Amino acid sequence: MNVSVLVGSQWGDEGKGKIVDILSERYDIVARYQGGANAGHTIVIGEQQFILHLIPSGILRDGIECVIGNGVVIDPQALLDEIRFLEEHGIDIKGRLFISHNAHLIMPYHKVLDSINESGENKIGTTGRGIGPCYIDKYDRKGIRIVDLLDKTELEKKIRRNVKEKNKFLKNIYSHEELDVDKIVEEYLAFNKAIKQYITDVPAYLDKAIKDGKSVLMEGAQGALLDIDHGTYPYVTSSSPTSGGACIGVGVPPTQITSVFGIVKAYVTRVGLGPFPTEIEGEKGEQLRQWGAEFGATTGRPRRCGWFDAFLLNYSRMINGIERVAITKLDVLSNFDEIKVCVGYEINGKRLQSFPTTESQLSKVVPIYETLPGWKTDITNVKTYDELPAETKNYLSFISEHSGFEIAFVSVGPKRSQTIEL
Ligand code: GDP
Ligand code: IMO
Ligand code: MG
After folding, report:
1. Residues lining ligand 2, Cβ inside 6 A
2. Residues catalogued as catalytic
3. For the whole prediction, is pTM greater than 0.85?
């Protein structure tokens, strides 16, 4: 039995898409378990770049079946755009995509509410994809789900009920113009035709697949520090990117999970607001952003960049149960004379024993750094671990030792061929 969970171990954009694409060759099924079109997973095949938001990154490998679990919030138009984009690039989706009947739908009012929230004092720098408001409705038991697309009468009833309620809020609380309910009903009734074919009882499908000996890779979106419970609240997303979210997000029981694999960027990035202890401000940070092409795959926003944080990684390893990892974007560090690694935090000269997730503490911590020599060599064509410069190997050993994980892959560029297996 091989049912693995793949998690982003920092604040997202660790290179999950690239590594899922590499690993999916060894799996039968790839399943996305949470988040929505806030994710942007990049895969480069030859000269073609694919950015996937909802469909698992396994779709680019022939014969791999792909699942979108109940934990994902689906913007139906974004989904259809993605399917069309893939088909235009010769990727056959037919019979390979399975969408949980219990996944919730992002509605136009979710995006409006997301944007209103972001214009106020509680701004956190969301992707504007309606994610938070959709999960609110889910937990408030007012959500509209994929399965509702199958019953047009019920769907229309639910949309009219919800839009009426949201319009009251929009008008009376936010002085915002009301939404046109007829337009939304018309738009959403039309999704039935295009999406019906993918709707699946996912837990039953996966249960049978696992019993038949098929292997499953669960693809996380976002990253552990964006987790609603374990992340740097309130600067988080509204779902559970950590490995525990995988069971809930696709309906596979914990007893079936055989391993947890972490994706770890060789430095740290974060998009949006929130504390970031190892952030590099000024010119050096800008340099790292340029070298790493650190601009959001979904929104194009510049990503904040910082030094590798082993203290944070230890926390992430603990809450996810990460055993083995892929280190990505190691090539981006090649230009530095010296590279810093954070090995702990202190507040008022006192070393912390555990990672603080509260804003008040995290904004006060002073990182304790160790400085390692850079390698100043282009490593983008290196094919084996042995060929890496001694300083690069030293860096890898140092971060793995201080974070407590075993390195299984090292990525030295965006392409499939730029991947070293240890
Ligand atoms: P994800 O959200 O975790 O899938 O990551 P993103 O796709 O948002 O961001 C990762 C970016 O880094 C993408 O542009 C990838 O093509 C790129 N990338 C992935 N691995 C490497 C690597 O090892 N080196 C370099 N230079 N770029 C990489
Ligand atoms: P992938 O899967 C990086 C961040 C947003 C914001 C916060 C909340 O590509 O790694 P949301 O729209 O989810 O309500 O925004 O979470 N965020 C991400 N940052 N990578 C992502 O996904 C992200 N998805 C959400 O920038 O700070
Ligand atoms: Mg991304």
Report:
1. 8, 11-13, 38-41, 124-127, 129, 131-132, 221-223, 226, 235, 237-238, 271-272, 297
2. 13, 41
3. yes
